[in-house]
Amino acid sequence: MSAPRILAIAGSLRTGGFNQKLLALAVEKARALGADVDVVDLKTVGVPLYDGDVEAQGLPPSVVALRERVAKAQGLLISSPEYNSSIPGGLKNAIDWASRAPGRLFQGKWTAIMGASPGNFGTARMQPHLRQVMSSVGALVLPTQVHLARAAEAFTPEGRFKDDARQQEVEALVTELVQRVKG
Fold first, then answer.
1. Which of 5, 60, 108, 115 is buried deepest, with most CB atoms within 10 A?
2. Cα–Cα dist 55/33, whole Å
3. In what order do the strands lie in the sheet with 75-79?
4. Separation of alpha carbons 166 and 38, rounded Å
5. In angstroms, what CA-CA distances link 61 with 43, 67, 94?
């Protein structure tokens, strides 16, 4: 049986940001479970702002490349901060481009959502928005999610969790995702 293919995306563009760290730990677990993980860096992928006029002239090469990566994936792993209690623009823009016709690239793909924030809510306000968007594009969103509050206190300087309970929470989410993708 081939390895499950997971596309991993951090909604934060900040190098070394909390959601980059959270995603790295989740990716590590997914790979340990035998998944083939493709990590998309929204900062370097170079997708322009969605514009119907641009789309009408033909998809930009960066959009075609992103869509190909989404199409190859069997599942998605998203770690995102919340900006003004909602989805960061870069992440939403990437989803918008990838969700355009032709094809329904997210249709039936299991998706795990998690997020880290320096505040006390741990992305609890953003995640319902992301869940709604992913569901509307046809993804199957896991009921389990991870909210990492006070993220500035959660990681060691090496990017590991200080608390084993947090590590176990992330590992449980990733394990559920990989199992669902395997079917």
1. 115
2. 38
3. 36-40, 5-10, 75-79, 110-116, 140-148
4. 23
5. 16, 10, 13
Backbone phi, psi, residue 93, to 5°: -60, -45
Q: How confident is the model at residue 2 (pLDDT cuts 50, 70, 90)?
A: confident
Whether 86 and 125 have beta carbons less than 8 Å apart is answered as yes
Within 8 A by CB and 6+ apart from 61, the residues are none
pLDDT band at 1; cut points 50, 70, 90 = low
Three-state DSSP at 159 gives coil
3-state secondary structure of 118: coil
CB 174 within 8 A of CB 31: no
Report, as an integer, the average pLDDT of 86-103. Answer: 95
> What is the b/e burial string over 29-66, where b = at least 16 CB atoms within 10 angstroms of the residue's CB?
bbbebebebeebebeebebeebeeeeeeeeebeebeeb
Q: Exposed (0-12), middle (13-18) or buried (19+): which is 168, by Cβ within 10 Å?
A: exposed
Angle at 92 between CA 108 and CA 136, to 5 degrees: 35
